[in-house]
Amino acid sequence: MRSLPPRLLAATLLATLTAASVHAPAAAADYERVLNGTFESGSADPWWSGAGVTNRVTGGELCAAVTGGTTNPWDALIGQNGVPFETGQSYTFSFDARATTAQPVTAAAGESVSPYRGIASQQFAVSPEKQRFSFTFTSTLDFPDAGNGQVAFQLGGQPSDNTICVDNVSVVGGVKPPGGVNPNPAKKVQVDLVAYVPGLPKRATLVSGATTPQTWTLKNSAGVAVASGQSTPKGADATSGDSTHLIDFSSFDTPGTGYTLSVGEDTSFPFDISADPVKRLRYDSLAFFYHQRSGTPIEAQYVGDEYARPAAHLNVAPNQGDNNVPCRADLACGYTLDVRGGWYDAGDHGKYVVNGGIATWQLLNAYERASRLGDATAYRDGSMNIPEKANGVPDLLDEARWEVDFLLKMQAPDGMAHHKVHDANWTALPTRPELDDQPRRLSATSTAATLNLAAVAAQASRLWKSIDATYSSTLLAAARKAYAAAKANPAKLADPNDGTGGGAYSDDTVTDEFYWAASELYATTGDAAYRTDVTGSSHYKAASLNRGGFHWGGTAPLGDITLALAPNGLPAADVSAIKSAFASVADQHLTAMAGMGYAAPYDNSTAGYVWGSNSTVLNNAQVLALAFDFTGTAKYRDGVFEALHYVLGRNPLSTSYVAGYGDQAMVNAHHRFWAHQNDPALPIAPPGSLSGGPNSALQDPVAQRLLTGCPQQKCWVDDIGAYSVNEVAINWNSALAWVSGWAAEKSGTPTTPKSDCEVNFSAGRWNDGLSAQVKITNTGTAAWTSWKLGFALPGTQRVTSGWSATWSQTGRDVTATSMSWNGELKPGRTVQIGFNGSGSGADPTVFTVNGKTCKTV
């Protein structure tokens, strides 16, 4: 519901409707005003229910269970807000209806907010036999472009409980608005609404049909001109429908706030020149995941009073809970699982292994990549505002573990993983998680879900090896069991029709998941069997990497990223080929971006802009970022920031798709708790939440009503009901978190504390052998009473003997533990140790002491 929750609708609203009824004989026009009147999707959105009424979509009908004993017909309501009406226009209100027990039902149209004026209503006798009802009226009120118009059914005033079902609800007539018009105001000078980083390119887009260069002026917050120049005409941009010019103001590099760009009388939204916002975004994008936690209270000390809520889905009434969840009735699996915890996937209360898999992998990969190639101290213990921020474990790993543990719980006794768990039926919008009264059900196990579990558990095992060896072993055992189960069930696909109460997430190709899981297991264990599966895959050496990017249903490039980052025994030429593929695809992105009016690494050549397009932009930005990591070539770094500029406002809608960032940012995400648009008592989307973005398929009724005929990049609206364009999801925010974390690292001097340890490694080598010297320095401020060094040996290298420490090796992971005589190490002091070994390979590049990443010198 759009404006006010149904419990606030006064009797005066619907009591006045009957008196306003007009029976006009004229036929109404064919413009449909009601959204989701056929309920074919299985969802009730955006229909709401009042007190004492529970909505369910069953068999393609919206069935309202009504509690008896009310006095007036308007004491029990179902309805829909945001219905547009124009004064003086004719409308026909039609619907099918039936009732378990015959009773009168009133259909009404009117105003959803005070003073609750009525337009028209009519009472009908509804019986157990489904009938078609219809009446025509002329509107006496004006609610164009949705506004505060409403349709509703009065179901109360009966002594006993009853169930009334409606279907094919339709209100047609009125003036059809022009299609493809986004109600959000757009500027003609499009900028990143947040900030441009000093030292990096600064580009904007001018919307202009002029064929000659236009003069632009950059002004500071006082309105004083500080730079000017000429735009470069680019002409028609088919994806946005705009004629565009490029404005490049990179030569101006003075940090500050409140800058604007002007061309003639047109001025941009304000923006900063600063690295601070992208560094803030790194943590706000990660805070999204704490907000989405299930099975635990979201506490005000971490999110503020506005976003705090009780724990949900713990079998505390009215929840039916995740403590003891059975399979769907048609599956009869014979067991229940305790699947408490994890993250709610999106705007509903479902939890999905395939979305959870890629989202968790992306967070863990952000940490692993920073540990090996960047600055992992940004994710140190205490860096994030979460309950685990003082437990000695990097906070990013703590947050990821919340979902890793849930993935483990989704593993069935036979080693397979259940595809998802969610409500038996879709819940209404809004529904706070702790007020969800739906029973919870496990969907069937699937090969794709099982391989997601195998991949993430193997990856996590590698990262927890030096932090919690017992947990690491548990993870690896689960990963091995899942991979073996998937090989025994290689084609158990998710049911594409399993879409009631939660998305189906079907995937008819799982060779990519096999490659990804085998890559993670091989990188963690070095086992020959996994290596054979990796090198024998059709996806090997980034064969599937292209401009289309990766996503939950196309995961092969995740395996490539791991093989390129983590030390392993693959031939150096093969690893080099993987890295070269990333640079090659990055070059393709940059070539395409050079011709765009609004530069974004996105390929719309086959499917247009799709559901979650912003996540694809950011996943492709990750490809650009890794190309920079692998080559050091600046153009790839610049491409990453261009992608962020697009997401943060340099787009044809002048909109930041990240909540809380920019003067015109997404507010009304499709979410059952962040639902302020529907209920003023609930919050808006919290800062750092990413909207799915433009979707030219327009797969929800709100988008269809407002945006039909839209150019691809303009197929978006900031409306809670527009779920196909404005939903949020964990695997979209994980992309934002990865990219913003990388960008923050590349945005100047890090603000996080320096490492408190330093390692110098040097080795002499001969054919199939080496002798290594390792110097460890305590660069912190506290003395060590003991120390434990960890690193991975690339290639086939094995420790055969060592000195001045207790040495051990598992796979490629090596540990060296202090002796009784050299464990105490005061600040500034150094200890030297060493080992002899066999095999060949490069020097290790990442070292930890007592679980913390050290500076390598």
From TrEMBL:
InterPro entries, sorted: 6-hairpin_glycosidase_sf, 6hp_glycosidase-like_sf, CBD2, CBM2/CBM3_carb-bd_dom_sf, CBM2_carb-bd_dom_sf, Cellulase_Ig-like, CenC_carb-bd, Galactose-bd-like_sf
Enzyme Commission designation: 3.2.1.4
Positions of the catalytic residues: 718, 727
Residues of the signal peptide: 1-28
An example molecular function term from Gene Ontology annotations: polysaccharide binding
Enzyme type, top EC level: hydrolase
Pfam entry (one): CelD_N
The UniProt record lists the keyword Signal: yes
CBM2 domain mapped to chain residues: 750-857
Top-level lineage group: Bacteria
BP GO terms, sorted: cellulose catabolic process
Name of protein: Endoglucanase
Native species: Lentzea albida
